[in-house]
Every structure is written in C-alpha cells, then in structure tokens.
Amino acid sequence: MPPDNDRLARRDVLRAGLSLGAQLGLGAGLKAQNNRAATRPQKGDLLVKTGDATATPLTPADIRLAGRQVMAWAMDPVDKTVRSGSRLNRILLVRPDPAKLSAATKAQSAEGVIAYSAICTHAGCEVTEWVPDGQKLFCPCHESTFDPADGAKVIDGPATRLLPALPLDVSDGKLIVREPFTSPITFETQ
Amino acid sequence: MKSSLNTVLAWAIVPVIAATAQAPVPLVLQNYKGVTSERLAKPEDGDWLMIRRTWDGWGYSPLEKITPANVTRLQPAWIFSTGVSSGHESAPLVNNGVMFVSTPGNQVIALDAKTGTLLWRYRRPLAADVVLMHPTSRGVALYGDKVFFASADAVLVALDAKTGKEVWTSKVAVNKDGYYISLAPLVAGGKVMIGTSGGEWGIRGFVAAFDPETGRELWRTFTIPAPGEPGSETWPKGDQWKTGGGPIWVTGNYDPEANLAYWGVGNGGPWIGDQRPGDNLYTASTIAIDVSTGKIKGFHQYHPNDSWDWDEVSPPLLIDYKRQGRTIKGLIDVARDGYLWFLERTDGQINFVEGTPFVKQNVFTRLDPKTGRPDIDPAHKPQTGKTTSFCPSLWGGKNWPPAAFSPKTRMIYIPANENLCATSTGREADYEPGQIYMGAQSSMTVAPGADHIGEVQAWNVDTGKRVWTHSYAESMNWGPVLATAGGLVFSGGTNDRKFHAFDASTGKLLWEFPTNSGILGQPVSFMMDGRQYIAVESGWGVDSRSLQANLNRLFPGKYPEIPEGGAIWVFELK
C-alpha cells in the first residue's frame, strides 16, 4: 500500500479506536492529551529541538551566537507533552549579536536567546532559512526576510506583519516560556 | 451507458423535486444543461465548459464577433466582486448561460452569465493551520449536473450545479503532511482526475481518478516510482522516493483518441539535485496516463535531476504541426526551463522532435538530437553548500499561466518572462513531516542590460519560428492567454492592472482596460443571445505579488504594491 493510504488507514484505525474508546468512556484522556499537544506554548513550558526523540530541554548554550535558527517545540514541563500537535506551534530560536538587539527585543530575550513563531505571516511557510550576512531570518517560499534583533520586523519580501515573539526566561539553566506568543499565529490565507 | 441514462433521468426529475421541496431555483438553473462527455469533446461555440475550453488545452474560442476592427468598443458588461483577495487564477466556466468560477478562500460562485446576478455561493472553511503555500484556485470542472472543486486542503468536492450544495467530498491526501491543491480537476473518460501540490514539503506526488457519481477513488498513480516500478532506478539512494516531490500544479490535457491524459510533473524534493542522485523520474516531466487504468504509458523528462525548481507546471498543448512536409501528431510544451519543446504523441510513448530556448537560458549546453536530453553546464547547476546563478530564474521562462493556440493563425501565444535570472544557495535539508523540505535559499536577479521582463510571444507551430513579441517595459507577465477566431489574443498579467487585446497575426496592441487589480485569471469567451463576451478574473497575489516585491528591492520605488481584491469582469462590444 502506498504510504499516503497507509497514513490514511492508520488515521482511520486511530479514529475508530478513539470512537470505540469514547463509547467505553476511555476517550476523554486521549482527547485531552491531543488538545495539550495542539495548545500554543504556555508559560513555564520547556523547549525542545524538533525531531529530538529524547526531548531534551534546550539551554541557552544550545543556541549558537549569530548562528542559524534552531527549530523547536514547547514541552509541558510536568507531563512532557511536546506541543507538536499544531504546526502553528513551531518556534524558532536565535541568539543575535547582543549589540544589535533593540530594547524591546532584549526585554523578551533570556541570556541573549530570543524565540519567535516559525510560521511566516505571509503564506504560512516555516521560516527555516538564515542569511548569515546581516543575521536575518529568511522564508524560502517567497523570500520574506525578518530582523530577529529587532522584533522580527519585516525587512523585505511580501510579508507585511512581523513574526510573533515568545518571551523567554531561564530556569535551572533551561530555556522556558515566560509568556505566550505576543500575537495570534495567523497568515494571509486565513 | 447505464449511468448516463440514469443521469439523464435524474436531470428530468430534479427540477420537479426542487420546485416542491426547496426555495425556487432561478430559471437559468432550472434549465441547467447537463454536461456530457460528448459536450466536453465538442462544446457548443458559445460555451466554455472546462478551464482551457477543450481537452487539447488550446484556450481558444471559435467566436468571431469581436475582431481587431471593433475591439476598441469593448466595455464592461458587468463586474462582480468576489469578496476575497489573493491571486485570482481561475477560468470562469460558462454552460448555457450559467457561469461557475472559483476564487481564493476556497470559494465557488455561480452567476447568471448575462447579468452577473449571484445564483449561489459555496465556501469551505480551511483549518487555521492549513498548509497552503499558494492560496488560489485555478478553476472548477463540470460533468453531469455537478461542479467539481478541489479544496485547497486536498479534498475533492462535488457540488450540485443547481444549488451549490455538497453532493460528496473525497479526501485526496493529508494536508498536514504538505499536500495542498490549487488546480482544477480534469474530467475525461468519465472520471474526475486530480493531483496535488506540495513539492516543497517532501510529498510523493500523484495523479488520482475518482468516480464522478460517488467520489470513490478509482486509481492513484504516483509520479515518483516505488522500488521495482519502472523508473525506480532513477532514485538509487535509499528511501528518497518517499519524499521525492513530483507535485502536480496544473490540470492535465487529454487525447480522447488514445484515452491518454498528459500531466506536467513538478520539482524533486529537496530542491538541490546533488542531495538526491539520479535522474529522478518523473520530476520535471510530462507523463501520459491511461485514463482507464492509471498506468503511465509514456513520458518525457525535460531535464534530469532538477536543481532549479523548474517544475514542469503546465501540461503540453495537443497540437498537430508540420515538419519537413510531414504532419506530426504533436505535443507542444512551453517549459519553465526556458525551452519550447516540440514533441510527438503516440498511443503511449512520447517522442522528442526539437527544443529551442524562448528566453535567455544558460544551463543547457546542447540537446541530444534523438532524445532531447540536455547536457548541463555544471557552473550553472545549483549545489549544496554553494551559491550558483542561472537563467531563467526559478520562476521560469513561463510559469503556470497557460499559453494559447489559434488554429487560424497556427500560432502559439506564450506569456513569458525574459531577462530574469536567479541565485540559489543549497544546504542539506532534513525531512520532517509537515515542514518545508527545500534546502535552498534563492533570490531573483535581472540580466545585465535588460530593458524589459514581461512578454507575449507568438510562435508559428509549423515553422518553429517566433513571429512576434510584445514586450512590457516595466512589468513581469503573469497573464494566462486566450486566443479567439476573431483574430485576437487577450491577456492580463501586468502590474498596471490592465487587460490587453492584441492582433493575433501581428501582435499589435489594440485595446487595454485597467481593472480593479492585476489580472492573473484565465480569460474566456462565451456567447449569449448572439452577443460575444470576454470574461476574466482580476485579483493580484501569490507569486506575482512576491516577485513584484523582489523587483522593488532591486529597483526601489519602481515596482510598488499592486491594489488587491478580486473581481470578475465581463466585457462586451458597446
């Protein structure tokens, strides 16, 4: 069977299981867990690198000075639910040259590390690329460019809105979410 | 045959039921004329029943009341605001006085074609986290008493043409994994066919066919072969075929004689070819699919191991042309790689005839005279860890906007972008489901000494030579083309919001009209009560907007933002 059908089939099986579970009064727990995974990053959440099966909490030292962004998810510190249930929860972490940070951005940073939504406000692509020259965030889909040292404001390209920030703190040496995203995660398709 | 008898009976019964059970159906819908395979094969001159009007993809109207002599009298008959912005890339279909048109925002609108009066409106909300890099729709398809619409989140929807209500929906693929749709379905051989975009998300592309009555999937043919299938030897490295891309951007064309549908297949994933060794079939190719079985009966790959994002977005036009005294049953493809390809179609295999650049192209050094396979200049092939320049740009000599063909002038009309080049910097891409899988950072450049970008080109298909070119001094061209028997070529596509009419023989610009926004729509022509109309969607956005922003970066202030917001314009002689 082709992989897509595989996936569809698995989803159907899962859905059937959920519905059976609901009938037996077992569905609520599973559903709540799904909701927590899709919930936007919450105050106190830890951060983990996307694709990290060990879900090791990130520390400021994991984010290289003036280096390419690290793509991450938030993780519930108690039950370790990784909030990867919605692509709108994708986060990017950067540590620009401290001398370049605007006052407002500095206030949202923790030990020089800043977090932003990784969802481009133009067409919703992930802002995966990095321009070393000038330390800019770059969306490969339509070339929107953002300045991470100054609130991820749009420098260039078709996006018209900055990337929402996710203010950070450091607790026990680990990066944690200080406050939710500074604005809703939406893009122009909506 | 049984099903078509049932369909005929259903058409006879439905108005009675509708009249007794529901709000009155407008007269023009009560008299709705069902669309049969026979009508699709040979549409009435005044109708426009599929996005390019006919299966051969010509975008040609046999109507001839509007001519070079009277086109200056063209004025708006009515205008209808779609209520949404983003790029409006659809073709208004017209069936016996009813117009069906899709818009961005997952919307289909039915209008009285004569007055622009709204008959019904269908909207299908999208999830907040939808993967949708190109929020547009390139049209709907008609068959029986249904309208087929590809919802952007990879769901095929059948609507009742009389009411706009859903008859069935069928999940085509998982949007979360990067599958989304911008094309119009193709109805041919009694089936509804569709493919998806997502070549930037590591999808495995496919064309699938559905039963128009029930929405049941009949076959699914992947554009990237699995191990053991023909072409799998072109994916020698591990499981790369599973995320190899090969999206379908634009509706295929169809040869009823051979029962073959021709589809263009897009780029490989990730973008840079050195990360996926091999020719990578069927990326950057045309494939010929047997509509009965879904089997790939033939293909032509325009360039192996694509590294330029030169998706073969458009299908080739089915045009029989002359060469050396012989008539060739042909396929003519205006490719994103900047070459105009003349091919031969058979009952399966696709043969190469000739290829010639139609814009600046610095990548191909030579074509194999037998197969057409290009030799690639390695200096202009993007690589991982390097920055490479190449022409044309990744948006191509022609992007998705379809060319048109007039059998009267024997010319093909191409919406081209000349003088655009690009640089691409490759980096190793990691696949993660639902995340961009490109591994490239690109930017557009303009060739030194360029005095224009956008063009409409006319090529004689029997000589293979260019006849005329109209250049747009200060704009790209994103305009699909309509050719008419009246001797005109219509196209929008420019950043001055204008709709243009050219003399089809000479290329002389005869008429222009500024609309509300830039025109990306596919113009059509239809006739009612003896009057010929020209219809087109206006609404700038998606790639045209991005590229305008890029040009403005290169030439500050020269390429300002274009007013956005969609409308349907219908013109008539006054």
Task: Kindly describe this structure.
- The complex is a heterodimer of chains A (190) and B (574).
- In chain A, helix 1 crosses helix 2.
- Chain A is globular and about 40 Å long.
- Chain A is built from 3 helices and 10 strands.
- The relative contact order of chain A is 0.16.
- In chain A, a hairpin with a 2-residue loop joins strand 9 (168-171) and strand 10.
- Chain A folds into 2 domains: 1-38; 40-177, Rieske [2Fe-2S] iron-sulphur domain (Rieske Iron-sulfur Protein).
- The two termini of chain A are 34 Å apart.
- Chain A has a 4-stranded antiparallel beta sheet with strand order 1-2-3-4. Chain A has a 4-stranded antiparallel beta sheet with strand order 5-6-7-8, with no helix packed on it.
- Chain A is α+β, with helices and mostly antiparallel strands and 190 residues long.
- Chain B is mainly β and 574 residues long.
- Chain B has 4 helices and 40 strands.
- In chain B, a hairpin with a 5-residue loop joins strand 36 (498-503) and strand 37 (509-514).
- Chain B is globular, with a radius of gyration of 22 Å.
- Residues 1-20 of chain B have low confidence and may be disordered.
- At the A-B interface, helix 1 of A face strand 31 and helix 4 of B.
List keywords for this structure.
A: alpha+beta, Rieske Iron-sulfur Protein, 2 domains, 4-stranded antiparallel beta sheet, 3 helices, 21% strand, disordered N terminus, B: 574 residues, mainly beta, globular
CATH T-level fold name of the largest domain in chain A: Rieske Iron-sulfur Protein
Contiguous low-pLDDT stretches of chain B (5 residues minimum) are 1-20
Radius of gyration of chain B: 22 Å
SS element count, helices of chain B? 4
* H-E order of chain A: HHEEEHEEEEEEE
CATH-assigned homologous superfamily of the largest domain in chain A: Rieske [2Fe-2S] iron-sulphur domain
Distance linking N and C termini of chain A: 34 Å
* Protein chains sharing the most extensive interface: A-B, 33 and 40 residues
Biggest beta-sheet profile of chain A: 4 strands, antiparallel
Mean pLDDT of chain A: 86
Average pLDDT figure of chain B: 95
User: What fraction of the residues of chain A are assigned to beta strands by DSSP?
Assistant: 15-25%
Helix coverage percent of residues of chain A? Answer: 10-25%
* Strand order, largest beta sheet of chain B: 1-34-35-36-37
What is the number of E strands of chain B?
40
